[in-house]
Write a structure and sequence with these properties.
With 280 residues, the protein is of the alpha/beta class. It has helices at residues 50-65, 95-114, 130-137, 162-171, 174-183, 189-195, 205-217, 224-257, 260-279; strands at residues 25-29, 35-40, 70-75, 119-123, 127-128, 140-143, 148-150, 187-188, 200-201. The strands form 2 sheets. Strands 1-2-3-4-6-9 form a 6-stranded mixed sheet, with helices on both faces. A 3-stranded mixed sheet has the order 5-7-8. Helix 2 links the parallel strand 3 and strand 4 (119-123). It is globular.
């Protein structure tokens, strides 16, 4: 998460992994276009805690099974697409829950990155870290003005895993991606368009969704099986490597997060957020 975008985050229970019974995503399928829109709705910033990640995965599976012609992911928040992994999941974590969180983040990326239908992100707000993860897993990105997007993990003392870097390299030149990742750089909307991190700018969420619909519509006359197989050719190597290393990736993440210096840095970051919230 970026200190530039939020005033507070809400902590959830750590030991009980069951659903709260509150749906944190919605899926709507347009009867005319056949395109499904997956909307994240966990106020205030769609922080990716365990429950939201489980809901996103469930919604992606729902879209897979309902014969939708495409998938658009967006946010119910007027200012934030997703602030990324809920930082409170990483601070003084319960090991079992943190392992589940990272595993479900992997699952969401894998499902979204590998789904056969066309995908697009209507980025209607800030999208640092895990927000950028969701966007770059899609095939097309449309973003509203005056927002930020990027993988800023190094600012918190952690790193973007190989499987997430592969998504960055799908859309950014290697030199730009390497520099951005090592710096923990967040791109403005205009910078993201210039570098190729997003494909279009829209003046509103509605316009962003319309542009995503138009992108998915470009495949209307393309054989869907041939399209899906072609997409798979481009993404198969990254997915194979991901599955080969995913268990080690979880262990590496838990080891890194639990380092004393990382926990200290996260604590300082949270304290800074509290001070900002108290001033507002």
């Amino acid at each position: 998460m970026s200190s530039r975008l939020l005033s507070f985050v809400c902590r959830t229970g750590r030991r009980r992994f069951m659903s709260t019974g509150i749906k944190l995503t919605t899926v709507e399928v347009n009867d005319k276009t056949g395109i499904a829109t997956l909307t994240m709705c966990r106020p205030p910033v769609n922080g990716q805690n365990l429950e939201l990640l489980l809901d996103i995965k469930s919604s992606i599976n729902e879209i897979k099974n309902n014969n939708s012609r495409g998938l658009i992911i967006t946010s119910a928040s007027p200012k934030v697409f997703s602030a990324g992994l809920d930082i409170l999941e990483m601070y003084k974590p319960d090991p079992q829950r943190l392992r589940a969180v990272w595993t479900e983040l992997q699952n969401v990326w894998c499902d979204l990155y590998g789904i056969s239908v066309p995908t697009a992100a209507a980025i209607n707000g800030h999208a640092p870290a895990g927000g950028c993860l969701l966007a770059t897993a899609c095939e097309y990105r449309v973003m509203v003005p005056n927002c930020i997007i990027g993988l800023n993990e190094t600012q918190l003392g952690i790193i973007a895993p190989k499987w997430l870097v592969s998504g960055y390299l799908n859309v950014l030149p290697k030199r730009v991606a390497e520099r951005a990742l090592t710096q923990g750089r967040l791109f403005t909307t205009d910078e993201a368009l210039q570098e190729g991190l997003i494909d279009e700018i829209a003046n509103s969420k509605e316009e962003a969704v319309d542009k995503c619909v138009a992108f998915i519509g470009t495949f209307a006359k393309v054989n869907p099986v041939a399209r899906a197989l072609t997409k798979h050719q481009f993404r198969a190597d990254n997915l194979r490597q991901f599955h080969k290393e995913r268990e080690q990736d979880v262990d590496d993440f838990l080891s890194l997060v639990n380092r004393p210096e990382v926990q200290k840095g996260i604590g300082i970051y949270l304290e800074g957020l509290k001070k900002k919230a108290n001033k507002q």
